[in-house]
Amino acid sequence: MIASEQVGFGLFGALVLLATHRSSPFVLASGLSSWAPFVFGFFGGLCVGGAALALLRARASGAIGTPASQRFEKARAALAACCLVAGVFSAAGAFSFGVDISALGMPWSFGGVIAGAATSALLAQWAERFGSLSRRAAFAKSGAACLVAAALSALAAVLPESAAFALVAVEAAAAAVLLFTGEPFGSPLPSDDATTSEDAAAHASSHASERAPGRSALAFAAAVWRPAAGALICLFVFGLTWDTDRLGAPLNDGALLAFEKVAGFAAAGLVVGLLARREGERDLLETLVGFVLPLLLVTFIVRPYLLDFVVDPIALGLIGFARETGFALFLAAAWLALSTHARACGLPPAFAMTLFAALAGASGLAGLYSLPVLGAASTFVGAVLFTLYLVIVVVASMAQRGRLSARDAQAIERQGFERFIEARSDELAERFSLTPRERDIVVHLGRGHSYAYIAGELVVSENTVRTHVRNMYRKMGVSSREELLEMIHGA
């Protein structure tokens, strides 16, 4: 069976790279100044489209997850996929076949606006898909998607221009098909029970009423601000340094530039994938944000000074490789933080991602518009921003440690206990061939929840819960809840 998340999201990422990265065969063929209006339009469409979709998500959050909303989401995703293809084709096709769209009255930026707005919509759909995965699965599939995007970017770099245009069509069609396979959009829980749409809607509305929106938003912001802010700075620097012809810095071009991008995304995919296989108690995202990314910040900070005296193409390639790896890892960290933390904080992942898309588009536009003003000094602006970011992160981390109290320590201990229950439940589910729903019930029982509470959380009746429990007892060879708890806690 094709792993739709890995391949589909990788195809989508490759499309975005072909449309915006300066090593794209279409950009190299047309020239940076000719392709610049498309990139301006792309970031503008990403900003406006993301903001509009975030507002729509905020108004319709209570209906997410119902069959009607799922059909609407699929229809909107299909339209977005078509718009992304149309936007890229409007520019790439023109350069590939010598058609001057501007002569027909349609400016180059119009295709970029369409592609950017469509990208924000498709990001929302993929966030819903990845938001329903476990943290480890999201890491593994995101890492594989980076490798797929790198492989397709390498293929596009060696193909003739017309063949690269055909590759865009194949990628777009395959990505659209894979986006519609797998779990329904907005489905928050895997279920082996028949749950009515009325029950799901009632469950969603009851949780929305119990949850404090302000506290959810603050908890979400506290969890994602470091990777999200780093990714936004990366996108600003991406726009600021996009037109290398105006920078005056010695940088590689052509095949070496394409190698930097491909190798950087491949390295990022390997890092994220290896983290998914890592054993231990430390959170995967915390490892990426707290250890891997600070090492790359040093590269970003010293890079402009190295460019003053490094002229060897291989050395420049290594510096560019480190830059592309850092950009890819920051974007991956933001993607994983937004898609996995949103649902845990009571927010729809699609809402979080469209809001980030709006900020990402604004950051890219700010960088593009700042380049003519700053000129050759643009390379040092990135170093200053990353230095400031590193200082803020260090100060915030020290302040957070200083505020730890007995209550905070108790909360951390509780989180460790819950992670232990999750891990033990996974082990028992694998050992005794429990269904996903039975595994969820084991988690709730291990935390001391009642049948009534479990029924409310899983949107089923108490009788259904009791039936699952009897089946679990039979599979696990226990006869009472006490024996089950002893099996869970006894390790």
TrEMBL record:
Gene Ontology terms for molecular function: DNA binding
Keyword Ribonucleoprotein (UniProt): no
HTH luxR-type domain: residues covered: 427-491
UniProtKB keywords: DNA-binding, Membrane, Transcription, Transcription regulation, Transmembrane, Transmembrane helix
Residue ranges of the TM segments: 35-56, 77-99, 105-126, 138-157, 163-181, 217-242, 254-276, 288-307, 313-338, 350-371, 377-399
Transmembrane listed as a keyword: yes
GO biological process: regulation of DNA-templated transcription
SMART domains (alphabetical): HTH_LUXR
This protein's name: HTH luxR-type domain-containing protein
Organism: Rubneribacter badeniensis
